[in-house]
């Protein structure tokens, strides 16, 4: 596990699938110059996803090998697919930047919060069930995948109250603006005003 310094932060974008958390996270990260750390996933890429940009897509065999070697600081199984975050990737990202961001499901977000405490800022991104379903259809996801995502929509939504901040995402530009303003407060919290 990486030892974090006083001002190092892990920003976690979480919430239900289809809430827009990835689009928002990447826009905010780019706007604020925050490094993204990718998780590893054993599932196949969804329409529009790119290996090395959205996830590191790997075989279940390689995942098990990395897991057995103790390389993951966070590992979860969702719908028979495994997702994990490598300790080494987090450590390397902190060498370049004092703040990193991740896109994790609520289970992964909770694991990191327990590990790193106040260094983790969880941003819960959500939309109503119907909007989430429509967005996933528009992305070209199969009805089977959408039904699977919606099967844990309520449990994902129940995590909202545990997060530091929550944002309803219906107006993308507005949501990105609000989150960027919130994070500026964290990123500049060590600044002291002088006359």
TrEMBL record:
It comes from the Bacteria. One of its GO terms (molecular function) is kinase activity. InterPro entries: GK/Ca_channel_bsu, Guanylate_kin-like_dom, P-loop_NTPase. SMART domains: GuKc. Residues 8-184 form the Guanylate kinase-like domain. Keywords: Kinase, Transferase. It catalyses: GMP + ATP = GDP + ADP. Essential for recycling GMP and indirectly, cGMP. Belongs to the guanylate kinase family. PANTHER family: GUANYLATE KINASE (PTHR23117:SF13), GUANYLATE KINASE-RELATED (PTHR23117). This is Guanylate kinase. The lineage of its organism: Bacteria, Bacillati, Bacillota, Bacilli, Bacillales.
